[in-house]
Amino acid sequence: MAKQIDVENLNVYYGDFLAVQDASVNIAPLTVTAFIGPSGCGKSTFLRTLNRMHEVIPGGRVTGKVLLDGEDLYGSDVDPVNVRRTVGMVFQKANPFPTMSIYDNVIAGYKIAGTRKSKNDFDDIVERSLRGANLWEEVKQRLNRPGAGLSGGQQQRLCIARAIAVEPQVLLMDEPCSALDPISTLAIEDLIAELKASYTIVIVTHNMQQAARVSDRTAFFNLAGVGQPGRLVEYDETSKIFSNPSQKATEDYISGRFG
Amino acid sequence: MPETWDRVAADDRAADPRTAEAELLAEAGEHGTAATEALTGRLAGTAGSGASGTVAAPTRRHGAAPAAAPHGVSITGRSTRVGDRVFKGLAAGSGGLLLVVMAAIAVFLIWKALPAFSGNSGNLITTQAWRPQSSPPFFGIAAILFGTVVSALIAMLVGVPVAIGIALFIAHYARRRMATVLGGIVDLLAAVPSLVFGMWGLYFLVPNTRGFQSWLSEYWGWLPFLKNTTATSTAQYGQSLLMAGIVLAIMIVPTVSAVTREVFLQVPGETMDAAWALGATKWEMVRTAVLPFGRAGMISAAMLGLGRALGETIAVALVLNSGFVINPHLTEPGGDTFASTIALKFGEASGSPKGIPALVFAGLCLFVITLLVNSAARMIIARRREFTA
């Protein structure tokens, strides 16, 4: 069920401002791909084009192609709503619905889509998703408590549970651990390794060790200069990026000599 | 590259003059007292607290704490500041004043209404008439209670959904320019005096909706409250409770929508993103993220509107054709509310011993109703408090 993503010559705009220029990547199914690069280089923006979340921002638009198993996400007959149901997303800041219980947060995707299921089915989905997010044991006694009452790391895992509850084919993660302590980060990283068995995962991270730990391939984004669009500098096996990058800019960034 | 990092960090600090000074100060603290004191003065000056004249007092130099520590700052004892005490006093005083005013109003109403409880040949609660001047006095609040509750209810049923719709449109659907213009109009509408609404209701709305009311009675008359049993021609429709309710609805729309708009604008972007990312359409996003988030705010806004509808005087007095009977047929002319009765009957009330107490009693009833409704709303909001952001 996991799908292949092929991005071809994608330009990403905010209004007239070109944020990412001419990026092309091929992401294989059931792999973890990390996007790294300095702040403002467009890696999060690029990630958000992979499920058409970029368009939620007024003026957000793209040119080029994003193919999901050969099907263009930006085709004229494609509904972004359906894209987002296929490509799930986890955000930098854990964002459980504050008005919902843990249980309702997990099945929020079904409630939004208006899918009717029996209580038993929903119970199964909730347990399976929370187990999938390594959160079940911690919350099974308090599923009806507010999701916002959990700790930061638990909230982030709740968001992952919510994203995988609707069984997407790709999971995008935008700096999922940047607000978490090392133990919660480790929990999420372990989870990513497990989720790789079922999903194609793309993760944006500022933490290069994290990219090295969790990903199979790594893409390095950088700005050509102030006011210039972000560009995809190098995209390769993670081991190669971190040991023997082919670009000077990548090597500088990896080793801390940037700017 | 440690050197690089150090250099960058130093540059960062240098960019902020206050930090740079604090650092100088810290260094100076190690080297000599004279330099420290000179710098302390500079620092206090740049921090903008020079006006109070006590800048040199060690307790005031929060920013310079690390450097100041070697010079004998005590961390024991309570630091009292005039500003804190004054502000605390003002805040507590304002809160207390509110309670005093509330209590004073309640006591006044009860005290002045007491005479109305005796010498009434009718029943204070159930009598559908208002003749406190006659001898013996004959009055009761039944009809005006009915009129007040029904007209406010109509106003809520019609006004609140419209107001929430406007607020949603402004906050989440309209483009920025459109939203600004519409928002301005809503705020403007909220400032229009109620007398203007009343005159508009009487001279425009009532004459122009006779046909509509007649249509309601004819085709929706199977709902008893919409049936007009007395009118034989369209011209006999007019100043009904329904129209009063609609005028009130129009009056509360700006208030309710201004408040709900602010609440809707405060929905966190990441909560909306969460809904988008799960494949929500616009309406599904609003339903999942915006409306639940704004629930408490919507209830509060509706209560503000209800308060205005319950208490509205002049517009209702103008639109309604007085009649002290409980008439469930809302398209038939006639009806009164607490507020309109108090306004309309005041002129003739002073001549008789029961006139004023009867009206004050009506005011007391209005006061109690408002309190009850607001308490109920607070309870509804509090019931799911832990689920509100």
Automatic annotation (TrEMBL), chain A:
Keyword Cell membrane attached: no
Residues in a coiled coil are: none
Under Pfam families, the record lists: ABC_tran
What keywords would UniProt list here?
Answer: ATP-binding, Nucleotide-binding, Translocase, Transport
A Gene Ontology molecular-function term? phosphate transmembrane transporter activity
Q: Which GO terms describe its biological process?
A: phosphate ion transmembrane transport
Keyword Phosphoprotein: yes or no? no
The residues forming the signal peptide are none
What NCBIfam families would the database entry show? Answer: 3a0107s01c2
Could you identify this protein by its name? Phosphate import ATP-binding protein PstB
Give the gene symbol.
pstB
UniProtKB/TrEMBL annotation, chain B:
Coiled coil spans: none
Protein name per its UniProtKB record: Phosphate transport system permease protein
Could you give a single Gene Ontology term from the biological process aspect? phosphate ion transport
Domain (ABC transmembrane type-1) spans: 145-377
- Coarse class of the primary localization is membrane
Entry-linked Pfam families: BPD_transp_1
Source species, please? Nakamurella endophytica
Region of interest: Disordered: 46-72
